[in-house]
Structures are given as structure tokens and as C-alpha cells.
Specification:
- The protein is built from three helices and two strands.
- With 110 residues, the protein is an alpha+beta fold.
- The protein has one domain.
- It is elongated and about 40 Å long.
- The chain starts with 8 loop residues before the first strand and ends with a helix.
């Protein structure tokens, strides 16, 4: 059912090693995944305002999952590059998984 709560919540995930390339972590961390649920049952995705609101929520959740901001303050270029890679990959996946063409177009234009 398309209107169920399950389809109205997007899970932003980032595998810390594979997506972000963070080196030096123990092998046990290979399976560590950060998740952030993003609800959007309150939004009308057929309207531009709803698409824009969801896109902002997805971007903020992706920043939280990938650690954007926290890793950039230390001046470590490798960490900053990893955060950017994680952010781009996770946001691309989240937008694609919503399955809303206008949202995808908004993402492509950003």
C-alpha cells in the first residue's frame, strides 16, 4: 500500500567503511551501519513545497549519518573527502529510494 507509514519513512544508511572509506577501523566495524529514519507522511510529494521539504529533511539526515561538520573542523582533508563521498552516495540512494521523479529532478539540479 503506497500510503502506509512504512512507505512514508525513508531510512538513510551509511556503511562506515564501504561508503565512507574510513580507514583504520577494526574489522568488527565493517558491518557497522548508521541509520536515520526520515518521516514524510505529513508531506504532499505531488506539490513542489512537499518535495523541497523532504529534500531538506533528507539532506539533514544524511549530514547526521555521515558526520558532516564534525569531521570537517579538524582540517583533515582525507576525512573531509570521506565525509563528502559518504554524503553524496547516501543522499543519492535516499532520493532514489523515495521513488519520486520530481524529487529526483530537484536533487539533480542541486
Amino acid at each position: 500500500m503506497l500510503n502506509s507509514k512504512l512507505t512514508k519513512t525513508m531510512i538513510i544508511s551509511s556503511v562506515l567503511i564501504a561508503s565512507c572509506g574510513i580507514a583504520g577501523m577494526a574489522s568488527a566495524a565493517l558491518s557497522e551501519v548508521q541509520n536515520k529514519a526520515v518521516g514524510y507522511s505529513d508531506l504532499d510529494l505531488s506539490q513542489q513545497a512537499g518535495q523541497e521539504a523532504l529534500y531538506q529533511r533528507l539532506k539533514q539526515a544524511t549530514k547526521n549519518v555521515c558526520g558532516a561538520g564534525s569531521q570537517l573542523k579538524g582540517g583533515d582533508l582525507s576525512a573531509a573527502t570521506n565525509v563528502r563521498k559518504c554524503y553524496r552516495a547516501s543522499l543519492n540512494d535516499a532520493v532514489k529510494n523515495v521513488g519520486n521523479k520530481p524529487l529526483e529532478e530537484l536533487h539533480q539540479s542541486s
